[in-house]
Give the backbone structure.
Amino acid sequence: MDKQEAYQILTLLQANYPDSFRGMSKEAANVKVNLWADMFSEEPFEAVAAAAKAYIATDTGGFMPTIGKLKDMLHRMQSPQQMTQMEAWGLVAGALRNSVYGAEDEFRKLPPAVQRTVGSPSQLKEWALMDAETVQSVVASNFQRSFQVCQKREDDYQKLPGAVKSFIAELAGTLKSYRKAVEYEKRSRR
């Protein structure tokens, strides 16, 4: 989405939320247009417009959406069939049946989001060896909570602009290199 398209989106929102723009200076309006254009630069105009209209259609509070709320609406529209916590646990529970001896294979069969929450094949094996009642109550509850947190983190990451994702990746690479250097230094002192 470019600046002209951001202006069109904000004009649409102004029609429904006029109080949000009342008394705004021309300079402030330009800053707002530039910010919205930057934050939605990787999104197609049609998708952002549809998200804005969906927000307007479902809003009962009467407040203009923030960039984050509109990105959330856009994300929900683009991925309506996201796996629930219960569905994810159902896959894990099924995998546990064969995980005493086949944890590696069962882990590979799980979707990536579920794998990230479980952590490793050895975790599947550990759960498979536990008392069934504990697994179906405590482990299930903890897994579902963790899955929800992981999904939220993944969703939030997907909403970030590409430049921010690149910065995060660069920072993560720098931290990984730093950690390796520290570990090497510790080993060399021994």
User: Anything to note?
Assistant: The chain has a mean pLDDT of 91. The CA atoms of residues 138 and 144 lie 10 Å apart.
